[in-house]
Specification:
binds zinc ion
Length: 244
């Protein structure tokens, strides 16, 4: 696999061990163009970076070597991990994002992503449940890589976790309100089991975490409303997380 080396100065100069690498975090660049994204990720002025960037044609750039901590995750949580820069590999996908014209991810871009993920998973023994999007680990601040990112297709390639239901079955439960408090509580308990973190049970943090869950696992309708479809999916994903 061809990887083009660029250099970003935005990383911690102390090396980390291979063992500390536990997660992959997927992002979109969310900027007007590929060029602008690269300039930003490589400029000392902005203090952001990632390990890899993949453009729409599938060309892979390495900006920071794996053994150094890149600055892509920010304040974040997943399962028992906190401030994930030190434990993760960050991969940026060129996409204008919600602000400048969100588009579907390109075929060649995704096949490069799949190849690089497979390599990283093997090298660092990364578990399925630790392959996340930026919005999963920072739901209050972030919405990338967004609801167009094909998590289901990734899971078919053994990258990340997915549920076992077919979409025709699930659709019947969409928009069916969850009324019982007990069910609501069990839904958020399942989100915690999956890895989502909310420190206080404030309305806004529950709402944003529910949206992050939908962006990842129920992309057909991202509305911040808890329905039975979400309930069923969360239950199944939480179960699948146990052994993966
Ligand atoms: Zn991001």
């Amino acid at each position: 696999m061809k990887i083009n080396n660029l250099y970003s100065p935005n990383f911690d100069k102390r090396k980390r061990s291979n063992k500390s690498i536990k997660l992959i975090v997927i992002h979109y660049t969310g900027m007007q163009s590929e060029r602008v994204s690269i300039v930003r990720l490589c400029s000392p002025k902005f203090k952001v970076s990632s390990h890899f960037l993949i453009n729409e044609k599938g060309k892979i750039y390495r900006l920071v070597k794996d053994e150094y901590i890149a600055w892509h995750a920010g304040k974040s949580n997943w399962g028992s991990y906190k401030n994930l820069n030190k434990n993760s590999i960050g991969i940026e996908l060129v996409n204008k994002g919600h602000k400048f014209g969100y588009t579907t991810f390109k075929k060649k871009q995704l096949s490069s992503l799949i190849r690089i993920c497979k390599l990283l998973i093997k090298k660092y023994k990364i578990k399925k449940k630790y392959i996340t999007g930026h919005s999963d680990i920072a739901p209050l601040r972030k919405i990338d890589p967004g609801e167009k990112f094909p998590w289901k297709q990734m899971a078919k390639n053994k990258i990340g976790i997915w549920h076992n239901y077919n979409s025709d079955f699930l659709r019947k439960y969409r928009n069916i309100k969850v009324l019982e408090k007990k069910q609501k509580i069990s839904f958020f308990k399942n989100l915690k089991k999956i890895g989502y973190y909310f420190s206080k049970n404030t309305k806004i943090s529950l709402f944003k975490t529910l949206i992050a869950f939908q962006r990842h696992f129920r992309q057909e309708l991202v509305n911040g409303k808890l329905d039975k479809e979400c309930l069923i999916i969360a239950h199944d994903i939480a179960k699948n997380c146990k052994n993966s």
